[in-house]
Each structure stands twice: as structure tokens, then as C-alpha cells.
């Protein structure tokens, strides 16, 4: 039984290593799309002055859904082009690694959304938690994907933690700007980070393929 289990795990590891290049090609368009959506959403949130606590949460949850659907469409199209299964075993392993922190982030957002009273100060903490939890999900996925994704996730974790620490005021007299400025934080992190990483993947992949 133990030998069968070990053989199965070894086969899974080999499959994941073989899919590493495929994952890298998939990451470039998905991260570019996510970055473009993040920057566009940040600009819309700023100019439309979406600054009430509930409106801010609803808006960025909607942006997250749009980004997720767009990424799934891109991955699905690439799986059809390469004639591979969309929900393959390696993909399941990646999804399992990312699911727990993503679920915590969703539940945290819903709790804040349906709270009876929600201050601007408390909502300002949400982007920091979103970054840290998202980074944890990417870092976990990095064990099954190219190692660069772990560094990408670590960047979100560090940025989220720095934002949390920067939000602590020992005198308890700190005043936060309105949530209109929080859109810039979201665009600078989820938008710019994705766009930069996507460009890096795209450019390095082209260099790698040159004779």
C-alpha cells in the first residue's frame, strides 16, 4: 500500500514538473489580464468616487469575480488549443493550495460587508488582508508551479504586512484618508504587480524561445 502511494505521489510530481513550462505560458496572459483589470478598476473607483464602506467592498468583490472569470476563460482556451484537460490533476493540486486563503479572504469580506456598522478605518484594513491572503494562496501554488510564483506571492504578503504595520497608530489618533484613495492602493498592488509580473513572464518567455 505504501509503495503504491509513493509511486502515485512520484508520478504526480513528475507530471507537475512536466507542466511547469505550460503553467508559465498560461500565467503570462492571465496576469496581464488581471493587471489591466486591476488598473482599470482602480481608475474607475477613483473617478467615480466609490468611497462608502459597503460600496467599496461590493465594488472590489465584483472586480475579483470579473478577474477570476477572465482568467478561467483564458486558461480554458489554452487547454483547448493544447488539447489538454482543463481540470487536470495538477490543476486540482494548484486549486487546492490556493483555496484556503482565498476562502478566508472571501469570508472576511462578507463579514465586513454585512456588519451593522462599518467605519472607513476598518475598511482600510481590508486591502492589506486581501494582499496578504492572496499572496499566501500564490505562495502555496508555487509548490506546484514555476518557483517565480512563490516570489510573486511573497511580494503580496510583504506588501500586505507593511500596510498593516503602517496602519497602526500608537496614539490612536490616526486619521485615514477617504476610501477613494484606497482604490489607488488596490490599483498599485493588484493592478501594477500583476501587470509587471505578466510583462516579465512574456518577455522572458520570448527570449527563451529565440534561437
The level of helicity is: over 70%
* Sheet with the most strands, sense and barrel status: none
The DSSP helix count reads 7
Beta fraction: under 5%
Computed CA radius of gyration, to the nearest angstrom: 19 Å
> What characteristic shape results from the CA principal axes?
globular
Point out poorly predicted stretches. 207-211
Spatial separation of the terminal alpha carbons: 47 Å
How many discrete domains? 1
Structural class: mainly alpha
Element-by-element helix/strand order: HHHHHHH
Kindly state the number of beta strands.
0
Average pLDDT, rounded to a whole number, is 81
Describe the overall structure.
- By secondary structure, the protein is mostly helical.
- It contains seven helices and no strands.
- It has helices at residues 2-18, 20-47, 53-81, 89-113, 120-141, 148-166, 182-209.
- It is globular.
- 30% of the residues are buried.
Amino acid at each position: 500500500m505504501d509503495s503504491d502511494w509513493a509511486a502515485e505521489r512520484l508520478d504526480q510530481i513528475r507530471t507537475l514538473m512536466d507542466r511547469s513550462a505550460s503553467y508559465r505560458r498560461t500565467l503570462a496572459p492571465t496576469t496581464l489580464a488581471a493587471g489591466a483589470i486591476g488598473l482599470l478598476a482602480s481608475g474607475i473607483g477613483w473617478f467615480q468616487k466609490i468611497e462608502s464602506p459597503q460600496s467599496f467592498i461590493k465594488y472590489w468583490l465584483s472586480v475579483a469575480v470579473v478577474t477570476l472569470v477572465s482568467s478561467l476563460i483564458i486558461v480554458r482556451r489554452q487547454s483547448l488549443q493544447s488539447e489538454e484537460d482543463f481540470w487536470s490533476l495538477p490543476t486540482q493540486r494548484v486549486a487546492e493550495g490556493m483555496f484556503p486563503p482565498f476562502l478566508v479572504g472571501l469570508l472576511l469580506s462578507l463579514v465586513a460587508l454585512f456588519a451593522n456598522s462599518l467605519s472607513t478605518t476598518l475598511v482600510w484594513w481590508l486591502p492589506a488582508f486581501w494582499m496578504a491572503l492572496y499572496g499566501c494562496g500564490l505562495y502555496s501554488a508555487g509548490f506546484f508551479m514555476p518557483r517565480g510564483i512563490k516570489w510573486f506571492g511573497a511580494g503580496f504578503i510583504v506588501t500586505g504586512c507593511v500596510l498593516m504595520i503602517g496602519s497602526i497608530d500608537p496614539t490612536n489618533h490616526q486619521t485615514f484618508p477617504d476610501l477613494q484613495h484606497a482604490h489607488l492602493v488596490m490599483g498599485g498592488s493588484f493592478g501594477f504587480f500583476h501587470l509587471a509580473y505578466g510583462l516579465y513572464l512574456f518577455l522572458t518567455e520570448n527570449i527563451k524561445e529565440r534561437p
